[in-house]
């Protein structure tokens, strides 16, 4: 179906070498997109590219350090140089430092904000001219259920992900005239390396998540393949500024 066909489209996914990012990359690859896996870990990048290519899709890797402005800008420039265009940007790279609010240092605060939010701004800022020149674009920002809820151990993370949703709305209104749609996805509790560490650090987290989630399970990265294709494809051309939860019903429970 052409509504969900990504043939000829080029997609950059920051943090695309594992977890949710790789799940989205594989979904878009299966729909025909050429994938650029962007991350710091060269070995993980190469493994992710091999996994995508095993699906019969086109994929390459460009290293990026999202804490460095020039690295973010080089990622976009090198993608256009390599592939001739940029159609889809997924701002997925992120991290967390789990502490009570009073325990954060200023450096830790900035590390989380810069990794999760500032990097998304920089990559989007760099992507805009290429997308405008191409006549269209899709930007997908990965927020979190912490965009909605609070958690005592996630002050900086929650601030960054709340900011991601509001930045998405602002960019969506600014760039709609250029046929660029900007949306955000709010993952619930997903089984990734990040949340495995959270389960080690936060007592009772696993059981509490299962108890509150109507679907009765943790999410997995492959749960993001479909929403990624939808938000990257022509099917969502009149959807912009949205924040879509993918959480097994966690956020609708009272």
Which keywords apply here?
single chain, 254 residues, alpha/beta, Rossmann fold, seven-stranded parallel beta sheet, 8 helices, 45% helix
What this model shows, in words?
This protein is α/β, with parallel strands linked by helices and 254 residues long. The protein has one domain: NAD(P)-binding Rossmann-like Domain (Rossmann fold), CATH 3.40.50.720. Helix content is 45%, strand content 15%. The protein contains eight helices and seven strands; from the N terminus they run E-H-E-H-E-H-E-H-E-H-E-H-H-H-E. A seven-stranded parallel β-sheet has the order 3-2-1-4-5-6-7, with helices on both faces. Strand 5, helix 5 and strand 6 form a beta-alpha-beta unit. The chain is globular, with a radius of gyration of 17 Å. 47% of the residues are buried. The mean pLDDT is 95.
């Amino acid at each position: 179906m052409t509504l969900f066909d990504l043939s000829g489209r080029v997609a950059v996914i920051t943090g695309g070498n594992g977890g949710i990012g790789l799940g989205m990359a594989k979904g878009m690859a299966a729909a025909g997109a050429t994938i650029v896996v962007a991350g710091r870990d060269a070995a993980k990048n190469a493994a992710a590219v091999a996994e995508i290519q095993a699906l019969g899709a086109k994929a390459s890797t460009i290293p990026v350090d999202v804490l460095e402005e020039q690295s973010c800008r080089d990622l976009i420039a090198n993608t256009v140089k390599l592939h001739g265009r940029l159609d889809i940007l997924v701002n997925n790279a992120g991290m967390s430092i789990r502490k009570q609010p009073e325990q954060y240092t200023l450096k830790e605060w900035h590390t989380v904000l810069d990794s999760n939010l500032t990097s998304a701004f920089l990559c989007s800022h760099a992507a805009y001219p290429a997308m405008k020149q191409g006549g269209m674009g899709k930007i997908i920002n990965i927020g979190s259920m912490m965009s909605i809820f609070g958690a005592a151990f996630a002050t900086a993370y929650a601030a960054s992900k709340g900011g991601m949703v509001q930045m998405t709305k602002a960019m969506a209104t600014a760039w709609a005239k250029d046929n660029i749609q900007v949306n955000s996805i709010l993952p619930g509790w997903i089984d990734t390396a990040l949340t495995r560490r959270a389960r080690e650090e936060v007592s009772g987290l696993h059981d509490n998540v299962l108890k509150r989630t109507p679907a009765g399970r943790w999410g997995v990265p492959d749960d993001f393949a479909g929403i990624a294709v939808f938000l990257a494809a022509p099917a969502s051309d009149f959807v912009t500024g949205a924040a879509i939860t993918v959480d097994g019903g966690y956020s609708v429970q009272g």
